[in-house]
Amino acid sequence: MKLLVIEDDAKTAAYLHQGLSEHGFIVDTVAGGDDGLHLALTGRYNLIILDILLPQRDGWSVLTELRRHEVQAPILMLTAQDAVPNRVKGLELGADDYLVKPFAFSELLAHVRALLRRGPSRQPEILNLADLQVDLLRHRAQRGGTKLDLTPQEFALLSLLIRHTGEVLSRTLIAEQVWDINFHSDTNVVDVAIRRLRRKVDEPFETRLIHTVRGVGYVLETR
Predict the structure, then answer these.
(1) Residue 122 pLDDT more than 50?
(2) pLDDT greater than 90 at residue 5
(3) What does the alpha-carbon distance between residue 95 and residue 204 come to, in Å, rounded to a whole number?
(4) Which CATH number fits domain 126-220: 2.30.29.30, 2.70.40.10, 1.10.10.10, 3.40.50.300?
(5) Which CATH superfamily is domain 2-118 in?
(6) What pTM does this model have?
(7) pLDDT tens digit string along 63-83?
(8) Helices H, strands E: what count in the chain?
(9) Domain chopping of the chain, boundaries
(10) Closest CA to 81 of 42, 52, 123
(11) What angle (nearest 5°) sits at the alpha carbon of residue 26, between those of residues 42 and 166?
């Protein structure tokens, strides 16, 4: 799942990026309100974490514009202000949840997972294909009842493939979604990552699920 963090404090942004990435999320971070609004409107995010006090435009304005453009991703507001009117304002403008700084990362992670479970853009928590099962929220995968020992990056790659079962994904799209939006797809990092994932997901089992479409990319499906 892909998250956007709009937070101008560099330490907080780095803290969130590292913690959420370690739990298997794909995370983009941006410091300014205008830049954050642009990414939120043009990207495909499952959830947005939005600070209120931002340069360029504040979080209230970003929130208002996102809902005006009918962006359906759940929005978690972050603020150092614990006043009830601020919380009410955020909820009335379309925020889904509210977290006051300072906060424990475990608390933020619980809020994120709860929003993803009930958010309007959520997918099923557990996806299945043949004997492969992927738990998107708990970041666990198993095949034939055997737990797959995946790195966070491998899990992100497998999650992308199973969320698009039967759809051929180009190397460029995979690189953009799993690594970075500015990733240069002329390297073989996608092919290397697919080979490593196949060793864990396919090679120990009789039926192959990850297939190469020559000249295009990769697809997860039964054949």
Answers:
(1) no
(2) yes
(3) 45
(4) 1.10.10.10
(5) Response regulator (3.40.50.2300)
(6) 0.60
(7) 999 998 988 899 999 988 766
(8) 8, 12
(9) 2-118, 126-220
(10) 52
(11) 80
